[in-house]
């Protein structure tokens, strides 16, 4: 089990809150983009992050909205669907990591859930030389719109087999992607992957995809 260093961070320019965990001899870092109405304390994302950390990947779970914005969004439910805003926040965090001594040399992957998956894909499309892999869990990649065709990072879409509407939307988005891609259907799982073993399957799929993408980038860089 790798030794983990964990710290609470404030991400500029507006001071978004995050939790950064770096395993000893980390081979890459994964930024989490949460879904609608969620945040860095999402139990599902934290469970996946724990598996990634044990696999040697650093993780950054962050709030994509400020506390004031969260209060507005509770009433309006508007900001959680502002994909460009969320992608910009993810990009700001990526830029911040590039200047932090402990993370600046680590290959970057994104893990997005629900609307956060669309934000991750838009942010990846805007940073083709920086982001080396993307994973979507029960995501809405279709909300990335035209950006889907510009994504260059290998992309894995994980969807529950019983999450019928989201599965259809993922298949449509999958057809738009022009990068290396895979769609993985977890049999019998619903949108939140609450069924026994479902989230563990998500974590395993994500870990292998992200490690593979970051290992490929390391070979290209050497």
Quickly list its features:
222 residues, alpha/beta, Rossmann fold, 8-stranded mixed β-sheet, 6 helices, 24% strand, globular
Give a nutshell description of this structure.
The chain is an alpha/beta fold and 222 residues long. It contains 6 helices and 8 strands.
Give the amount of beta strand, in percent: 15-25%
SS field, number of helical segments: 6
Summarize model confidence as the mean pLDDT. Answer: 91
CATH topology (fold) name: Rossmann fold
Q: Which series of helices and strands comes N to C?
A: EEEHEHHEHEEHEH
* The CATH H-level homologous superfamily: Alpha/Beta hydrolase fold, catalytic domain
Given as residue ranges, the uncertain stretches (5+ residues, pLDDT < 50) are: none
Structural class: alpha/beta
**Ends: how far apart?**
27 Å
Number of self-contained structural domains: 1
CATH architecture: 3-Layer(aba) Sandwich
Radius of gyration: 16 Å
